[in-house]
Amino acid sequence: MNKRHLETLSSPGWATMLRQNLLPWVESIADLGDDVLEIGPGPGLTTDILRTRTARLTAVEIDPGLAAALAARLAGTNVTVITRSAEQLDLAESRFTGAACFGVIHHVPSPAQQDRIFSEILRVLRPGAALVGSDGYDNELTRQAHIDDVFVPLDAEALPSRLAQLGFTDIRVEHGEYDFRYAARKPPRRIPPGR
User: Fold this and answer.
1) What values do phi and psi take at 58, rounded to 5?
2) Is position 191 within any domain?
3) What is the model's pLDDT at position 148?
4) Which residues contact 56 (CB under 8 A, 6 or more apart)?
5) Element (H or E) spanning 99, and its range?
6) d(CA 7, CA 165)
7) 25 belongs to a structural domain
8) For 82, left (φ over 0), alpha (ψ -120 to 50), or beta?
9) What contacts 147, CB < 8 A, 6 or more positions away?
10) Cross-strand bridge partners of residue 58
């Protein structure tokens, strides 16, 4: 992540936007439960919000510097920070009651890798649990913010079919002024007839 982008995502203005804009949307979409997974927390402003609404939060961050800083800042809290790629979480199947992925998937170098992350999220979610996320539009302003950065934008129109092909259900995409938001669920466990 380039310096300018990181400064924006660490700013008080960004924190206010998250509290006033993103959080109400998340709360209107799904109860994430008491054991939540966050992919790509970066400097951790979304982590600060999520951790007040769950008993346990596991934040997976690929950047060692960002992960170390977040782990140090949140030591002794209900947050566990793991430094690794979300493509291979090495976490228990069907563990999490919810997952969040805010503004990070476009930093993943290819659609195939993005899909592997979504597949891993699906694997570690409990049946019926929700994934909530957001990402930026592919426009000049967003591209300028990602100079010297990985930027592989998600196509908001294609995302529902991508998530459905991976096995998610109840998929919805909402278009906002600055970003689009998506939600999906792991299918509930099916009980065989006669049980």
Assistant:
1) -110, 120
2) no
3) 79
4) 34, 35, 36, 78, 80
5) strand 96-102
6) 36
7) no
8) beta
9) 2
10) 37, 80
Whole-number Å distance between alpha carbons of 108 and 186 = 22
Q: Is position 180 within any domain?
A: yes
Q: Which residues contact 172 (CB under 8 A, 6 or more apart)?
A: 29, 160, 182, 183, 184
pLDDT tens across 49-71, in order? 999 999 999 999 999 999 999 99
Give the strand pairing for 96-102 and 125-136: parallel
Domain count within the chain: 1
Whether residue 44 is predicted with pLDDT greater than 80 in this model: the reply is yes
Segment holding 114, helix H or strand E: helix 111-124
Read off the DSSP letter of residue 53.
G
User: In CATH, what number is assigned to the domain containing residue 119?
Assistant: 3.40.50.150
Contact 77, 59 (CB under 8 A): no
Q: 87 is in which domain, residue-wise?
A: 3-16+32-185
User: Does the predicted TM-score (pTM) go above 0.85?
Assistant: yes
Q: Is the pLDDT of residue 185 over 90?
A: yes
Q: Is residue 194 part of a domain?
A: no
